[in-house]
Every structure is written in structure tokens, then in C-alpha cells.
Amino acid sequence: MYQYPKHFLTVTQLIQKLTDAGMTIASQGEAETALTTIGYYRLKGYCFQWIDPVTKQYIANTNFSDVLKLYHFDFELSHLIFSYLSQIEVALRSRLVNAFQTTQDALILDDPSAFQDKKLYWKNQGIVASEIYRSNDVFIEHNFTNHDGAVPLWAAVEVMSFGALSKVIKNLKTGNPSVFSILVRNYKFKNTNGNDINPSKDMLCSWIQAVSVMRNICAHNSRIYNRAFSTRPQLIASDRINPQPRYNGLYQIMLSMKYLRPTQESWTDFIDKFMEILDKYAGVYDLRRMNFPDDWTSHF
Question: For the chain, first and last CA: distance in Å?
Fold first, then answer.
């Protein structure tokens, strides 16, 4: 078996390691509590902006309490984002069901004719079927008992994971009329000429993919701050940063959230709460580390 070169360190040893690297620890008790309840490795992710890349030491006057404040900033931000993503997800489910009404077929998910790639359709059906099987929701049990196991679209959509939901949408047929053409009307935006236009399927699905990734990150209590996202949502031209950054940050993900907002009122409320968190932790974070441009407020 491979012998890993590093060993477990006690909390006392971890505090000494931080001190040896140049970090100021004003309160031993605060550090002990944080390292016990949050963990050294998790907190390390919030230290990068204070580490000198050449010496690998902390820059002068780096205080452990500032690292802890940054962690709490990220924690509150994650909870706010996750809450709004839940609103986006619920609205997306409802709007997809409403779009499928045009078929007047409660069991449309069992019909591949509404979907573009038939092979992919069957692959996705396996995922959906598995999620229906695992569900113990009363409305699923109702259909098992009273409708010979047939599950209507509106019930199936409620037990799909966000990932399965996005796969179904991505495989919808396009054109007019189609289920997709009805769904996409909910997500119009203004182009550079000020005209309302519908996003393409690739564009809409890139937004859904971005918020799906963010939802998983928030659900697992992972770090948002100073994080690079490999997913690349297709941004509206007026929101793009030039030159395009190598990796996307929270700015690009939040724009996807704006495009998918359930209502303008809900988005305004979200931004108000976002600004409250920024004000609360002013001086702790650096918005550039989340890809926010100087004029970011004009885009939200």
C-alpha cells in the first residue's frame, strides 16, 4: 500500500503550523474551536489570498480571525444562493409541466416523439425511472395503487433530480410549435437593440447547467469564494467580460441565476440580501476573486 508522506496533526500542531507560516493568532481559543468544528483543510481554502506565492508564507499582518470572517461570509452567501436556486428550480419544474400541456398527454414522458435524440431519450428514461422507483412520495404511491403504475408527467417532474430535469429539457425537440418553444418564452431577454428574444436551447441549457453545478456545491457546503467553475454559461452580450476569463466565477453563475429568475421581484429581493451580506463583511472579501467586474452592479 502507498505510504502517504503527510501525517495527521493535532489541533495544537495545526495552530503551530499556521503560526510558523506567519499567521497571527490573537485568540488561541477561537483557533481551537474553529479547527475543531470547521477543520483546517476546509479553512485552508479561504487562506489563499493572504499567501505569498513566492515564499509560501502568509503576508504580514494576516490574522486568523480574518480567515474565519471570510469563511462565515462564504457560508452565509452559500445559504442565500441555495435558497434562491430552490426558487429557480421549482419555477422551472412548473414551467416545464405547463409547456407539456400542449400535448394533452399525461404520459408524454413515455413517448419518444417529443424528444430529439431517441437513444438519449431511452438513456434519460432509465434515470427518470430509477428516481421514480426510489421515491416514497404519497403521489407516486397513489399512481402505483390507483393507476396501474402509470405516473403522469406532473408527478414524475416532482421527483426528478435537477440533473435529470436538465437532461429532459436538453433533449426536447425545438421548432415552433414545440414544448421547448413554449418553455423558453418564460426566459426572454433583451438584445442589444432592445428587442425581446428567446434564448436558444444551447443557451438556456447552459444556464440550467450552471445553476445545477452551483446547487450541488451549495448542497455539499463547498466553498464558493475564490473558486473557478469549469461550466461555461452562454452570457448575454452586454454581460460578458472582455477579455473572457480563463475560468468562470460566481459572477457568471449569478448571471445565469438572473436569466432563470422566477420573477423580477424575487430577483430584486435576492440582490438586496446579497448586498446586505457584502455590507456586513466589507473589507474581508475581494470581489475580483469571484470574477466580478468593476461595473458589476449595472449587470444585476
Answer: 52
Question: How many angstroms from the chain centroid is the CA of residue 64?
Answer: 28
Nearest to 208 by CA among 257, 249, 172, 250: 257
Percentage, residues of the chain above pLDDT 90: 78
- Which among 1, 60, 61, 72 is positioned nearest to 30, based on CA atoms? 72
Q: Which of 192, 292, 193 is nearest to 250 (CA)?
A: 292
Cα 186 from Cα 259, distance rounded (Å) = 10
Q: Distance between CA atoms of 295 and 300, rounded to whole angstroms? A: 10
| Amino acid sitting at position 65 | S
The three cell numbers locating residue 287: 470581489
**Does residue 46 contact residue 223 with C-beta atoms inside 8 Å?**
yes
* Rounded (5°) CA angle 208-75-163: 20
Q: What is the mean pLDDT of residues 127-138?
A: 90
The pLDDT value given to residue 13: 94
Q: What is the pLDDT of residue 120?
A: 94
Q: What is the CA radius of gyration of the chain?
A: 23
For 61-85, how does the pLDDT look when each residue is reduced to its tens digit (9 = 90+)?
A: 999 999 999 999 999 999 999 999 9
Cα–Cα distance for residue pair 114/96, rounded to 1 Å: 13
